[in-house]
Every structure is written in C-alpha cells, then in structure tokens.
Amino acid sequence: MKTFMLKSEQEICTGFEIRNNFISSGSISRFIKRTPGCKVISKRKMFSKNEIHVTFNYKETEFQVWEPFGDNSRLLIGSEKETNEKTIFSLANEIQKTKCYFVC
After folding, report:
1. Contact 27/86 with Cβ under 8 angstroms?
2. What's the pLDDT tens digit per position in 60-101?
3. Which of 25, 28, 30, 48 is the most exposed place for a label (fewest CB within 10 A)?
C-alpha cells in the first residue's frame, strides 16, 4: 500500500497518510493486525462519530488511524506523542509491504 509522508514546518516526519479504500473500521483493524509488529488496542464502534478508527501499538509506541472530518479519501496514521522519525519510517515501510485486499 502506498504511503504519503507528513512533515512539520521544521521538515520532521510526524506521520503518514494511506488511501482510504476500506469499507469499515473493522476492515482497517484487520489490515493493521496483518501488519508485522502492530497490535490493535481498540477500534471504533459501528456508527460512532469518533474520527479515530483504530488505536494500535508499534514498537512500544501508540499510534492512531483517523479520518479527518469523518469523510476523507485518505486516512492519517500518527501518534499523539512526539515519536522518533525512525519508528514512523519503519511503520510506513511495514504498511507498504502489507497486502491490501482492496484497491490500494
């Protein structure tokens, strides 16, 4: 799956985006579970207005998959806490290698 890196004004990588070709929070959660090193903590309940679809751990760092405004063509993956760029690049690399069963 292709990733699109997000950088701060200081050119520091803060997260990345993936295409939102998923049907539900459940399918996003299943995709994250298949990604090596990721462990899902929680997923959004059906019909919830929460923009965060999935919360998961990767290399002892908590990340979230969220959909800005609840209706977007891309999902953002990042952490609320300041995260080492190497960890973000490593996660993006694992996401890129994970098979997507939709058009990704």
Report:
1. no
2. 999 999 988 777 888 999 999 989 999 999 999 999 998 776
3. 48
Q: What is the pLDDT of residues 1-59, one digit of tens each?
A: 789 999 999 999 999 999 887 768 888 899 999 999 999 999 987 766 778 999 999 99
**Pair 18, 103: CB distance under 8 Å:** no
Strand-pair category, 38-43 with 52-58: antiparallel
Closest CA to 77 of 96, 60, 63: 63
The token pair that represents 63 in the structure block: 């990340």
Do strands 74-78 and 61-66 pair parallel, antiparallel, or not at all (unpaired)? Answer: antiparallel
Name residue 10's amino acid: Q
Q: How far is CA 104 from the centre of its chain?
A: 14
Domain boundaries, the chain: 3-97
Please answer whether residues 32 and 44 qualify as being in contact, where contact means their C-beta atoms are separated by less than 8 angstroms.
no
Name the DSSP class of 45.
P
pTM (two decimals):
0.86
